[in-house]
Structure formats: structure tokens, C-alpha cells
Amino acid sequence: MSETVLETRDLTKKYNSFVAVDHLNLQVQAGEVFGLLGPNGAGKTTTILMLLGLTEPTSGSVRVLGLDPTRQPLSVKSRVGYLPDQVGFYDELTARENLTYIARLNPIPTPQLPARVDEALQRVGLREVADKRVGTFSRGMRQRLGVADVLIKNPRLIIMDEPTSGLDPEASLEFLEMIRALKREGITILLSSHLLYQVQAVCDRVGLFHKGRMVLQGTVNELAERVLGGAYRIQLQAEGDPQAIQSALQRVDGFRNIRQTGENLYTMEAARDLRPEAAQAVVQAGGRLYKLDVQTQSLEEIYSAYFKEVEHGTVQSSRVR
Ligand SMILES: Nc1ncnc2c1ncn2[C@@H]1O[C@H](COP(=O)(O)OP(=O)(O)OP(=O)(O)O)[C@@H](O)[C@H]1O
């Protein structure tokens, strides 16, 4: 049975009359990578601060590893790793010296320190450069050192706020690979990011924040179904009577949003890969099929479709439960 590592119930934070986080209900299970998405000012950082006990909720409750961060902030801090978007290190000290310095602030028995520091450096791929000054490190290396820093306390949960902002594509890919490795070790990760393709690449589930509310929550496929009508987009090119082809496609159980997008071009959404059914429909309508493609929907499309709907007032930005 899966274990809930993080749970909020109607968690709310107000700054005077301004509601920064509005009745947030969130559950993250052990071993999951959960992505927090949303435009600037949506409430992601405020949520993270409440999870860490760094700011007090106005109402509602939070449990992190079974602890209440408001009442037990130090216990939460000692068990949860937090990686801000930029980690401060002493440039003139080496990676090993920096980690040793920080590790001394944790309740780790002194004889175990060197081994714990080496192990953490190994896990983030910085063992080779352990004795180089951090001032010579690239931003990607500094971020990985930030992860090594949180790994020293053997956390079961790591919260990362925009961890790849400012990293070049290669460093970002390496960082994402490291997140996958941490997941394989069973570590739960909560990741806040604007970079949707990166979130899609590593997250099991995502939650979309809008004006303090979590308006969508689920796997990328679930969100695609809710917002776009299907997780799969099927595109085909076929010659023949457009009306006959469209009505044949409409008779297929499972197609939504069937559109003619150009001469002999048709696009539709589905919850499953229904390419064989699409091919059959074209043939039944007397058409000649030239091309048939399927794509899974990207988080970018879901995100922009959702905000377009909000703009046009076709969805209410109501919160999910
Ligand atoms: N200490 C504060 N006092 C007053 N308002 C605040 C305070 N901290 C945050 N806010 C407001 O609360 C809202 C949510 O901010 P928050 O930093 O949580 O958003 P975010 O989703 O993390 O955005 P970003 O991606 O820009 O970091 C914003 O409108 C912000 O201006």
C-alpha cells in the first residue's frame, strides 16, 4: 500500500486580504515525483514555505512525513531536503569542504561525516571534482552540489524550487537524470518549475496552480483528457469526400474534437491510440489513406489550452478536490 508523504487539507495563506494560497488539497505518495506548475505569483513558493514550516498557514492543515511543520519545523527541516533555485556556497572552499561544513550543522556523528560527504558527492556525480574550489564550478555543478547538500541528511522527501532555472540544456538534462536516479532510490520529490517539458519528462503527476488555487491535478494523460479531450492526437491525410470521411470518423467510439485542418488533413483527440480505427473509418468512407500519425499531448499544449479557456471564460478557475 502506498504511503502518503505529504498532505494538505484546505491549506490557505492570506497576506492581509490577499489570498496567496486558497484551500489547497494535495496528496503526494511515497516515491512519486510531483510537479507544481503555474504562472508567476500563482502561489507555488508560498505553498513550499508552508510545507517547510517557514511561513504559517492562515487556515487548513499540512502534514509532511506525518509531522506538522507549523508545530515541528525543526523535525521537518531535519528530514526534508529543500533545494532553492540558487544555493549559496563558499566559493573559496572546495566541494568537500563546503559539504563537510554544512554536514556539521546536522546531527551526524563526526566519525561518519567523511563517508557521508563522499557518498553524497558520488550520488550527484561530483566525486571527481570533490577537491576543486566551488568558485570554479558551473551553475549546473553548483545545483548538483545543492542536491548533495540535501542528501547528507538522508531525506525521504526533497522539495525543489525551480531547480533547473538558468541551466543550459545539457546541464538540465543531467539534472533531470539525477532526479530519476533519486526516484529509483525511493526518494519522493516535489518539484516547482516553469519549464513544462522538463516537468513532463520527470513527473508522475502534476498540479497546476492559478491565482492561489490548484485548478488541475493528475497525470499528464489525465490532464490532457480533461483539457484537450484526449491524451492522444491523431492526424491523418486522406483523399476522398471530406463529409463522408468526417462522418465515418464521428461514428468511431472514442474520437473527440474531429477537425479538418487542411486539404485532405484531419485531426482528432482520443483517450487511446485509435489509429487502426481511424484507418478503417477512412476506408469505409471510400477514402484513400496517405498518412496516419499519433502524438501524445504535451504539457505545454495543456497549459496554454487551459489558460486560453480561462481567458475566454469557458472554464471557471475553480479549485480541484
Ligand atoms: N510576504 C508577502 N507579503 C505579501 N504578499 C506576498 C508575500 N509573499 C508572496 N506574496 C504574494 O503572494 C502571491 C503568490 O506568491 P508566490 O511567491 O507563492 O508565487 P509563485 O507561484 O511561487 O510565483 P513565482 O513563480 O514567481 O515564484 C503573489 O501575488 C505574491 O506577490
UniProtKB/TrEMBL annotation:
Belongs to the ABC transporter superfamily. PROSITE patterns: ABC_TRANSPORTER_2. This is ABC transporter ATP-binding protein. CDD domains: ABC_DR_subfamily_A (cd03230). Keywords: ATP-binding, Nucleotide-binding, Transport. Residues 6-236 form the ABC transporter domain. InterPro entries: AAA+_ATPase, ABC_transporter-like_ATP-bd, P-loop_NTPase. One of its GO terms (molecular function) is ATP binding.
